[in-house]
Amino acid sequence: MTGGLAGDAVDRVAVDWVAVDWGTSHLRVWLCDAAGAVLDRRDSDQGMGRLSRDGFEPALRTLLPERSAPLPVIVCGMAGSRQGWAEAPYAAAPCTPPGIDRAVAVPTQDKALQVRILPGVKQDSPADVMRGEETQVAGFLAQSPQFDGVICLPGTHTKWVHVSAGEIVSFRTFLTGEMFALLAGQSVLRHSVAEEGWDDPAFAEAMAHVLSRPAALAADLFSLRAEALLHGLDPVTARARLSGLLIGAELAAARPYWLGPQVAVIGAAGMAGAYTTALEAQGVPVVQADVQEMTLAGLRAAWAGLKEMAT
Amino acid sequence: MTGGLAGDAVDRVAVDWVAVDWGTSHLRVWLCDAAGAVLDRRDSDQGMGRLSRDGFEPALRTLLPERSAPLPVIVCGMAGSRQGWAEAPYAAAPCTPPGIDRAVAVPTQDKALQVRILPGVKQDSPADVMRGEETQVAGFLAQSPQFDGVICLPGTHTKWVHVSAGEIVSFRTFLTGEMFALLAGQSVLRHSVAEEGWDDPAFAEAMAHVLSRPAALAADLFSLRAEALLHGLDPVTARARLSGLLIGAELAAARPYWLGPQVAVIGAAGMAGAYTTALEAQGVPVVQADVQEMTLAGLRAAWAGLKEMAT
């Protein structure tokens, strides 16, 4: 846990609402004033994956100031899934990123807390779902309302989202990040792939290779092991090459998404950088935005909606 | 461990040599007479992955009869790798499957044991390696010396081997089996994929789908999760579909291998059956052979070579 202790004098006075990004493996809390300025930021590792249904409120309470006056809390992410705190049923694409009017109110033990969870978005065919990314898209659109094109959100499950006229038109999820983690950490490749480090040319070369022959992925993956055994392939090079193969295969599949329109990449610095490099190598100009800033911007847009509803 | 106890009277008299298939996770021993007939079969879970270098001889001894007269032991598989019992350096393709003349003699504490390990095969470019499959190929060629075409050996790391004029001409390894295990058991898909069961039409449909659009694999994989969440996809169907997607992607990449020539599939019944079904759906006639029989046939061919060398 980071941030100040609950019960600070400042907290009690100034905090008007709380923005919460609650994913499978993380819980991020921003204590905000009425204008949306951040007074304090508090994180914990109490992600949805670790919590049973009645563990959510205590996990959140630890990060909040002591209060008797009502405290609005706006949550996005996996906390709204069926296995989460309370289910916030998906909005169906095409749709605008769901705002506060579609949020689900969650009953709490602590009557001061007024918790609302924003829904995710589903797509019937091809079947797909998101929870959390829709709020990042909302944040991006709050800053660039005229954006028309594709937003790529790299992560464990990378999303490609087609956005037009303020709506999420369609989207597709790729298991790329999770496959990287499993292959690098738990497959036979773990003997040949470094845990850290990077090699730009190896990444670019592997990506170009697989973009021209994406089907060969499973064989190209084993080559990393064989190159290590036979030719002493450097583990850091192997790591960058593994990433290049997987992201390259994803780009090949997502080509209809990024060919033509404006492209924005929203992600953490390292991963967003890799996607930006990859897309720029294909001649695609990219706007890059920070994922936590976009999440907060999306939650702020929901807060603005809540204030409007109250007036 | 299965099989009789060491020290049987029968063992002491009749066993002329021992065939050993020593992989990462298994140890299989056949006690044979001079003609190659199997007198007893003994297995243990003491695969290479569990053993340090000096653990190999004791693990083997437990499965052998007590003997003072010399006992030839012929080994194939990962026991010959650098991390194994003793390194049997790779033969370089194109080459015949390495026979007893290329085997490495391993010094033992028990002077009655005469252990020889058969080498694997390597390929420089694209970098690739095999250990154990070359002996299965040798076994298949011992039975079908005129075979000219492609041998597919499904497994954790599936091999496609181009064989001509008795030689391993080239080969390619796919991580398909390992990816199936990781995705079904440890990724987000584990919530949606059954541990057992099968659905033939789902397998065929997924395979046909991915063969026509192999690049979309990483997105098709996530759809399994989304279909479960949104449309209640049956976990057994999801399992067969996951297998169909991965094997289909492999077939797409291996198309140059199976398009045209004779194709043989050597594997355990379930997995070999899936590959056979998949190939036959593409109009490719397939000969199927059992992997353990082919391993034993390959080791018998090496035993025949040893007898020739002795005369």
Strand content of chain A: 15-25%
**Model regions low in confidence, pLDDT < 50 over at least 5 residues of chain A:** 1-7
Structural class of chain A: alpha/beta
The N- and C-terminal alpha carbons of chain A lie at a distance of: 36 Å
Total strands of chain A: the figure is 14
The CATH class of the largest domain in chain A: Alpha Beta
By CATH, the superfamily of the largest domain in chain A comes out as 2-keto-3-deoxy-galactonokinase, C-terminal domain
Task: Provide the number of structural domains of chain A.
Answer: 2
Number of helices of chain A: 10
Secondary-structure element order of chain A, N to C: HEEEHEEEEEEHEEEHHHHHEHEH
* Helix content class of chain A: 25-40%
CATH topology of the largest domain in chain A: Nucleotidyltransferase, domain 5
Please tell me the overall pLDDT of chain A: 93
Multimerization status? homodimer
